[in-house]
Every structure is written in structure tokens, then in C-alpha cells.
Amino acid sequence: MNLDFSDDQKLLQEEAKKFLTKEDALKINRAVMDSDKTYDQDLWNKIVELGWTGIRIPEEYQGLGLSHLELCVIAEELGRQLAPVPFSSSVYLFTETLIEFGSEEQKQSILPKLVTGDVIGTLAIAETNSAPTINNISVELKDGKLSGTKIAVPDAEVATHAVVVAKNGDSVSLCVADLNSDDVDISVQRNIDESRGYYSVSFNDANAEIIGDEESGWSNLEKIMDHAAVLFSFEQIGGAQASLDMANTYAKERYAFGRPIGSFQSMKHKLADMYVALTLAKSNSFYGAWALSSNAAELPTAAATARVSATKAFQLCSQENIQTHGGNGFTWEYDCHMFYKRSKVLSLNLGSLPSWREKLIKSLEQANIKL
Amino acid sequence: MDFNDTPQEAEFRAKCRAWLEDNAELKTKKTNSAKNMNVGNKSLLEAAAEWQKKKYDAGWAMIHWPKEFGGIGATPIERIIWAQEESKFNVPKGVYEIGLGMAGPVMMEYATDEQKERYLPPMAEGKEIWCQLFSEPSAGSDVAGLRSKAVQDGENWIVNGQKVWTSGAHFSDFGILVVRHDPSLEKHKGLTFFFVNMKSPGIEVKPIKQLTGGSSFNEVYFNDVVIPDSQRLGEIGDGWKVAITTLMNERLAVGDADGVDANEAFELAKKHDKDGEQLIDNNAVRESIADWYCEASGLKNTKLRTMSALSRGDTPGPEASITKIVSANKLQAIGNFGMDSSDMSGMLMDEESDFIKFQMAWMGAAGLRIAGGTDEILKNIIAERVLGLPQEARADKGLAFKDIPSGS
User: Fold this and answer.
1) How far is the C-alpha of B23 from the C-alpha of B9, rounded, in Å?
2) Boundary (domain end) residue, out of A214, A243, A275
3) SS3 per residue for B184-201
4) Beta bridge partners of A256
5) In angstroms, rounded to a whole number, what is the distance separating the alpha carbons of residues B199 and B172?
6) In this structure, are B189 and B288 located in the same domain?
7) Per-residue pLDDT tens for A255-302?
8) CB-based contact (8 Å) between A268 and chain B?
9) Based on the domain organization, do A289 and A339 belong to the same domain?
């Protein structure tokens, strides 16, 4: 029985934690929030230098050739310190798609550039305020040209490329588009988390190249969403742990009625509830990490389970952290709101909590999996 | 990451499995293990005694105990593997768990060598059954507030008072007992720990009828009961320290709530329909089941993380402390869901129907949320021991026990 990370993976995690603490990622996140930027270039450059963008990229494409497990421990640390970089878009979404479905030629031309940071990728799915489905995609790919508008595309400004989910005749295909093309218009969209950038991206007969089987675009997308659900769940448990730690520290330092507020049972029970939710989420994320790294048949179920638990845990911990801080928690000055906002962005970016509960039940119906 | 045994663990598991297959029957969907300790249920007692003896003779009764007391000195991970395998078989439960799980460790730590030699092997063999006498009518969550009195009289102690919620007292031979030897001391300092022969003159056991209608626990009255000082465990005044050892073991022993889970809710929802629409097609139902599944999966994987640490020979983290809170609440919710799914007829009980398991879950869960530490106390423990939050300000701090307000 070994539902845990290896010593080497834990060492990598410790190094990531030290690096982000030394850089003061949380302070950088605040600076990004206070500016009109949506990421931090300097922190991103350092992350690229550390090789994190190439963790999963095979050595033949100049990557580190490591597994998803190494990516999970990095994700947890990025989530804990809210690092404002396009890592998740480029690594969990774009790179995963390239590795899973890219042709040899696509891999050779793009993967090495993801390692060096010359290519930064993202994934464009949403179009309207309804959940995207195989039936309502209207951005269209015709004769190698894309037309239509995507919304809520993460990191589109810094990204050089995007995987785009497009209608292609009677089916849905995934295709790669160059976002620097003159035929692509990108404009920033105001969103709830000032440290993250979301954009509308309009394609005006822009060149695009199909990636993966052109008929299987939707099922391929679902597979990438499962991968990303596990990886994001580690960002979520990192953020949830940080929120709980903040609440815990404050509950010990803040006095009311002549004693630390953490000595009141109502506060203890609140923090215990946070700990319970986080522990369930962490254990489910470990299970997701196992399923992802071993490409297990249980992956759709494990990914949805990790996603639902981690979303609930981060939302609970970040909102109750504000509550624990009282009025201070509602100020811009305290860090609580940064976690609150990130938790909501992370709970929506791959589809909402109800959508993932539904995915979980569907996977149980299909696989007939028992606990 | 993997879910595999190490080669040594696999070998040990195969050994457990082989012996169990030769000596017991695998559980099937239909087998219902007898685990209710009903008063006068002689057949359960006999069956449990027979199974315990069988295990003892083959060395499986208390495998983590040293050889001289009937164990094989098994490691913590081997103990879990044995329990996992045994739980797959239809064997009697509910008679020996408290004695072996709580009295055993205390005797092992505090009894003299002669006492260990005298009492531990028969405990493991199942010849003598033990119970635990802690809670009192006025001391539940605040168990250190207990009032049963012990007065020293030469080589003996004279005990008077009342214990309550004592599981299995009606068929037990011995019990572990904590009493107050000096009410002029502070609450936690005036307690002393003993073991007592349950057949001693002056002990009276009265069963308590539970809300399920069954009676697995009792009131136990002590009227001038004589306990030799040689049966004291720990120093005079160390009762709380000794009791804490036991309570820690109790929390591990109570653990998971048995019964219906997300799977059963899922199966039920697929069976029921309303005007042709299956319950499982209802969004609210789907969301609830998804959440229960995530909790069940979270508990299962938490357990596997604990096992992973034990398998490496490390001390597990505090993650297992969430188990009872989550499982007992989930059980109650699923019990409610099950009955709601049958609408107006959900209240009707039929012993012959499989549906009764939802009603039993609903009833039993109300007790599980209290037994072995209430939800509220367990959350305090997580807050104080895991998260390091300060203790609640207390109205009884620094007072002699006799001066503490009791509301009566």
C-alpha cells in the first residue's frame, strides 16, 4: 500500500515551497491585483528556468520526462501561494493536450518551445453563459480556418497559442491556433479575481491545425478535463490548506471577551469542519493522482471525485477564513480575499460544482464502479 | 503510488486468508452478521466465544500482542491486514471488541506481570469478557466530572456510585473502572483507576432500552463494592492519565460507521420511480449521492494513506481523526434519504425487506454520533490536538471538585 508521494517527489515539493516563499509569491499576487497586469513576468521566467513547464514533456523533446505526480506536488505549492503565472493554462491544459493527442510533427515543433517558454499555451472552450456541450459549440473550423468568438479564455494575452474547441462539420474537433495572428482579436474581460486574466478571443478566418482525431474532439476534450481536474485539485488543496492555516493563526492571536477567539467552541468547530473537508479532499486528490499517473480505467470517476471534494474544501476554507477574520477579512489589506477569489475562479474554470457532480454520477452509471 | 501489498504483506495476507477460508464462511450479499448485543441473546455469546477460541488456538486472536499472552507480535500493518480479511467473513461481532480494544491495552501498560499472566490470555481466548465503566449520569462528554466514590479501607477500596452506557456489562466478567478517591482535589487530580470483578457483591447491572428497542448497554450500580488495592492501575490520583490511554483506543476502535453508504443510496435511487421518472434522474438526488460518494471515497482513501504510513513503518498523521464524524453523519443522511425515497410508506418497517437497512441506519446513526465521543467533542479534539487551538475557558478550573457548580 502506497497512497503517498515518494521521497523524491516530496523533496521537489519542499524545494518548490521554498522557492515560492523566497520569491514571496503571495506578495507578487497582491502586486498583480493592484496593477492592470494579469500575471507576473519575472516569476514566470524563473519558473520556466526551473524547468517546471517541461516536467511532463519527454526528454526527446527537451523536457524533464517526469510523471504527473511531480506535477501534482508543484500544483499544490502554486495553489498554496496563489502564484500569478499562466502555469495552469499552459501546462495542465495546453501541454497535456499536445502530449496526449499531438502528431509527431506537432510535438516536435511545439513541445521544446513550451520547455523554453517560447510557447505559452491555453485552452479555449466557453462561448456563452450556458455550460459548453458537444451540441452548442459554434466557433467553427472550415478548410483550416477558424471563425467565431470564445470567452473566459485564461491567460490569452500572454499565451502564444491556444487549443480551440471547434465545430467541424457534424463533429467537434480540437485545433491549435496561433494567437499572435492578425486574424485573432483578444480583449480582456473583467473577472472576479484581479490576479488572473480572462479574455474574449475572436477568430476571423484564422489559421488553425487539427490536433488529434478530428471526429473525437469532444471525448478528447473530456479526457484533458479529467487530467486538469486532478491537477487543479492539488492547487485547490494547497489554497485550502493556506486558508485554514491563516484562520488558525488568527484564531490564536485575536482576543475577544478576554480570550483568544480560537478558544470558543463555535470557532473550534468551524476550523474542525474546514480540516475535515480538506482531509477528505486531500485523500481524494491523492486517489486522483494515482489514477492519472497510472492511466487507470477509474480516471473519470477519480478525477470527478477529486474535483468535487477539492472545490468544496477550498470554497469552504476560503470563505470561513474571511469569517474568522471578521471585518478585517473583508478588507483589501488582508490576504483573505485573494484566496476567496481564487477559490471561486478555480471552482468555475473547468465547469461548475454541479456540472462535476453530474459528471461523477454519469461516470458511476457508466462504469458501475463500487467503492 | 500503488495499492499493492509489499511482498511480505502479500504473504501475510495470504496466510490470513487461507486460515479464514478453512475456518469461516465468506460474507455474501445475503449474510447478515449478528452484531447486536441483545440481552439474553445466548446464541450470539456462544457463537462469539467459539470463534474467539478458534482464533486464539491458531494464534489469530490478538496478533499484535506478545507471544506469552497469546499473540504473534504482529506489526500495525499486519494487524490492519488481518482485520481487513476477517471483515470479509461472516463471523460474530459485538462481544469482545471493548475488552480487547480498551481493557487490553490498559492492562498491558499498567498491570503487574503476574496480573498480565493471569488476565490477558483468558481475555484473548474469550473465556473472560471485559467491559469499560467510565461514563456516569452526570459525566458524559465531561467524563472527568464523574462522581462515583472510592474510599480506602486498609488493603481495600470501598466503591459507591453509578456508571452508565456500559456496553456488555450484563455478560462481562471484569471491568475497568475510574472513580473519584478525593473530591477535595481538582477535577482531574482526584481520580483513580481500577479493574473489578463484575461478579463482586454490591454490583447490580440493569439493561437500558435504546431507541432502537434493543439493549446493548447498561446502568451499573456500585453499593459498597470491595476492590483490593492490588487491582489499582496506575498511582492514586493518576486515574485521568490512565483513562486517556483507554479513550484514545476507544476512538480508534469505534472508527467507521457500518451500514448503508453511497452505493446503497445509488442502487435504491435506480429502483424507485415516480410517474415513470426514476429517482436517479432527479437532480437533487444525483447531487446528494455525488457528495456522499465523495465523502465515502475520501474516508476510504484517508484510511489508505494511514495504511501507507504504517506500511513504511512511519507514524500516521492525524487524518484518521475525521472518520467517525464523517461516517456517522453520512449514515444518518443516507438513512433519511432511503426512507424519503419511499414517500408515505417510508415509515413502515418490514423485517423481511432489504429496505429496513435504511431505517436501521437512521436509528443507529443517532447513537453513533454520540458513542465514543460526540461530534462536538471530536471536533474539539481536532481543534485542540490537531490544529493546536487553546482550550475553552472553564468554570471548573482550579476548583476543588466538591466546589464545582453542578446544576443540581
Assistant:
1) 21
2) A214
3) CCEHHHHEEEEEEECCCC
4) A259
5) 9
6) no
7) 999 999 999 999 999 999 999 999 999 999 999 999 999 999 999 999
8) yes
9) yes
Crossing angle of the two packed helices B283-312 and A265-293, in degrees rounded to 10: 80
Cβ separation B376–A269 shorter than 8 A = yes
Name the one residue in this structure whose C-alpha cell is 455469546: B45
- Whether residues B264 and B292 share a domain: the answer is yes
Q: What CATH number does the domain containing A314 carry?
A: 1.20.140.10
Task: List the Cα angle B317/A285/B255 in 5-degree steps.
Answer: 45
Same domain, A52 and A172: no
Look up cell 460507521; give the residue. Answer: B257
Tell me which DSSP letter residue B92 carries.
-
pLDDT of B35 above 70: no
Q: Tell me the pLDDT tens digit for each residue of B168-212.
A: 999 999 999 999 999 999 999 999 999 999 999 999 999 999 998
Radius of gyration of chain A measured on its C-alpha atoms:
20
Count residue pairs from A and B with Cβ separation < 8 A: 164
Residues of chain B with C-beta less than 8 angstroms from the C-beta of A9:
none
State the DSSP H helix or E strand holding residue B332, giving kind and residue range, or none if neither: helix B323-341
Q: What dihedral angle (degrees, nearest 10) is formed by the CA atoms of A217, A223, A228, A234?
A: 170
Of A2, A251, A259, the CB nearest to B308: A2
Where does a domain end: A199, A214, A229?
A: A214
Whether A1 and B392 lie within 8 Å, measured CB to CB: no
CB contact under 8 A, A283 and B301: yes
pLDDT digits (tens, 9 = 90+) for B331-367: 999 999 999 999 899 999 998 888 999 999 999 999 9
Distance CA B3, CA B6 (A): 10
| ipTM of the shown complex | 0.95
Q: What is the DSSP string of A246-304?
A: HHHHHHHH-EETTEEGGGSHHHHHHHHHHHHHHHHHHHHHHHHHHHHHTT-TTHHHHHH
As a whole number of angstroms, the distance between CA A326 and CA A331 comes to 10
Looking at residue B34, what is its pLDDT?
40
Task: State the cell numbers at B370.
Answer: 454520540
Facing B319 at nearest CB: one of A279, A304, A308? A279
Q: What share of chain A is helix, strand, coil (3-state, %, to 5)?
A: 55, 15, 25
Cβ contacts of B7 within 8 Å, gap of 6 or more: none
Domain extent at residue A291: 218-367
Report the distance separating Cα B177 and Cα B233, nearest Å.
9
pLDDT tens for each residue of A301-320: 999 999 999 999 999 999 99
The total number of residues written for chain A in this structure = 371
Residue B31 has pLDDT above 70, yes or no: no
